[in-house]
Specification:
This protein is of the alpha+beta class. It has 2 domains: 191 residues, Aminopeptidase (3-Layer(aba) Sandwich), CATH 3.40.630.30; 166 residues, 3-Layer(aba) Sandwich (Aminopeptidase), CATH 3.40.630. It contains 13 helices and 16 strands. Strands 1, 2, 3, 4, 5, 6, 7, 10, 11, 12, 13, 14, 15 and 16 form a 14-stranded mixed sheet that branches. A two-stranded antiparallel ribbon has the order 8-9. Strand 13, helix 9 and strand 14 form a beta-alpha-beta unit. Helix 2 runs antiparallel to helix 8. It is globular and about 60 Å long.
Length: 365
């Protein structure tokens, strides 16, 4: 099996990779070259894509990002927090051989660049962690979780059909929002995007949390939206935006990237109406799985809010193989790691307490 490494400027090979990606409806948008374009300008990451083929047929791909930090370079399948990524392959391919070929090449690239570590994120929907253990042999791993909604179970004939259960049901709150006279529509102008982003920053300040980088948010809405790979669902109070959901998608899988509410309308819960409208929009686009992404911890308010919508918890792993002595990483400390590699995962912070870069750690327990 042949594996080719290439960059965004290599048009012919990129076209082959893009064709493979389009032929894999179960893949994530973050595994595409278009996602790499959306990230451009956010940091110094160099995208390197791997394409596995055999007999003239493309079988699998793996996006990688090289970050050259002062203590040493790192290689990761998805930079920055939130999105998922890793190996994707045709459904009829021999996954064992595809993963072996791609992960072998990835390790070779990490060594060639003198990387301290290579981190790849496993797939929570189609569990492939055993393949990574066989063909990456990670030094250390971090188990995280995401919350996934099976849209076929909660949307039927253009209606939300959430079951009543002990986990809660948002139906009453949705009715309250509808009674307040809100209307729902997709964002279609730059002015509307700017107004939503202002609300997003304001809400992030109130919570408090870090807002999305404006350049990334705009690239997602404008550039990926032009490809049918994103949408910004708005809820309006007259001419004013009351809430909005920024979503990214590829065929069967849609990620909730940001949900923001104008706090002036909080008492009428427009965010619930925004989520409902976004779910219905996903269903019309043929999406099967809505990925709520992770929560800070199990049982907190964010986790419970996501669970109301029929989400089920799915585990996934940050799988890291190191290429240096433990001490080179451990002497940085958690603070030093954050400073040297902002927004990037290198190793679990638990390694600094344990004094070794080995084992499996749990997040959000």
């Amino acid at each position: 099996m042949q594996v080719i490494a290439f960059g965004l400027a290599e048009v012919d090979t990129r076209a082959r990779y893009d064709d493979l990606f389009e032929a894999c409806p179960h893949a994530y948008i973050q595994q595409s070259t278009h996602w790499a374009e959306a990230l451009q300008g956010l940091g110094p990451d160099q995208p390197i894509f791997l394409l596995a083929s055999e007999g003239g047929r493309e079988l699998g791909g793996l996006p990688l990002y090289l970050y050259r930090g002062a203590p040493g370079s790192i290689l990761t399948s998805v930079p920055y927090a939130g999105p998922l990524g890793g190996v994707f392959s045709r459904l009829d391919s021999d996954r064992e051989r595809v993963y072996a070929a791609l992960l072998g090449e990835a390790q070779g690239i990490a060594r060639a660049h003198g990387c301290l570590a290579l981190t790849i994120i496993s797939n929570p929907i189609d569990d492939d962690v055993d393949l990574y253990h066989r063909h990456l042999a990670p030094s250390v791993s971090l188990q995280n979780f995401t919350q996934i909604v099976d849209l076929d179970a909660v949307v039927s004939n253009g209606r939300l059909v959430l079951r009543n259960n002990k986990k809660g049901n948002p139906a009453a709150t949705i009715k309250k929002a509808e009674a307040a006279g809100f209307s729902a529509r997709l964002c279609s102008t730059s002015a509307e995007f700017e107004a939503w982003y202002t609300i997003h920053v304001q809400r992030a300040t109130e919570i408090p949390t870090a807002p999305l980088d404006r350049r990334l948010a705009e690239h997602i809405w404008r550039d990926l939206g032009a490809r049918g790979c994103s949408f910004l669902q708005l809820v309006m109070a007259g001419d004013e935006i009351a809430a909005g959901c920024l979503m990214v998608l590829h065929k069967r899988v849609c990620d909730v990237f940001a949900v923001s509410m104008n706090s002036a309308h909080a008492s009428n819960a427009p965010n619930y109406l925004a989520v409902k409208a976004a779910m219905l929009e996903m269903a019309t686009r043929g999406v099967k799985m809505m990925n709520w992404q992770s929560s800070p911890r199990r049982g907190d308010g964010v986790y419970k809010f996501k669970r109301q919508w029929g989400s089920e918890e799915k585990p996934y792993y940050f799988l890291t193989k190191t290429f240096c002595e433990d001490e080179r990483i451990l002497r940085l400390g958690a603070a030093g790691l954050r400073q040297a590699y902002p927004g990037h995962f290198v190793v679990p912070f638990g390694c600094f307490e344990a004094g070794t870069v080995a084992g499996t750690y749990l997040k959000g327990a």
